[in-house]
Amino acid sequence: MTDALYHRDVMRLAADAVGHGRLAKPTSSATVTNPLCGDRITIDVEIDQGRIKSLSQESKACLLCQAAASMLARRAPGLTLAAVNEIKEAIEHDIATPPDTWPELAAFAPVADHKSRLRCVTLPFEALGRAAAG
């Protein structure tokens, strides 16, 4: 792929690896695979009173998916699932102009020119949705 996709901000998000590992006692978990590229991610989530209390992620995935998972693990605690789903929908609608509420999403703007890579970014969100659905 091009250097535009895997630039410094994406590499930094992936290297941060926020939430990497597994939760000891998650409320629920889900594993999702992208059959097009082989990305595989497991999300453990602990939900308390309708809010994400903690989230962990473990992946065997490309840099885009790893970066998105790290960002999600940093940003999701404290939010409702509905709030996280709004972000996912905004990414799917137009990744080139992400919502101002998550400024680090701007790192994924180059994905707009590589539509086949969009699911790499949204896969962690999909796994969280499935885990929360239980």
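(the above was protein one; protein two follows)
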Amino acid sequence: MRKIKIIITAFCIFCSQQTFGANYQVTMNDKDSSGNRLVFEKEIINISSGDSVTWLPADKGHNIEMVASPNDLKFSSSPGEEVTITFEVPGIYYYRCTPHKSSGMLGLIIVDNDYSNIEQIKASNAPGRAKIKLNSLLKSLL
């Protein structure tokens, strides 16, 4: 009987502890190490539900704006603002830097390897060079 109580107590302690997801960081840069201008350090990130992403501005002129997502998340940060978002809904999230959107400063977050909303992402507004870059990133997923 004592053994069962110990096992139940250990199980209750284990279950009561909060589980936190991973946190990924993305730097918003004027240039990357290859000399490419106006980029997010990681353009595609694969994460799991419950994980979060923190965007770190290396320059005050960058922000993030969520363009398309499986849950129609509407979000736009202020320029130079550090932002953290936790992702709970599986799918593809397409975001960009508002001031540099036509230059192709954009990125994708894939939650739980779910590509079910890829057509929504393909149909999203991507002006100028961003359309070419978005198509290239989407092609690399398949």
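Reviewer note on protein two: The first strand starts at residue 23 and ends at 31.
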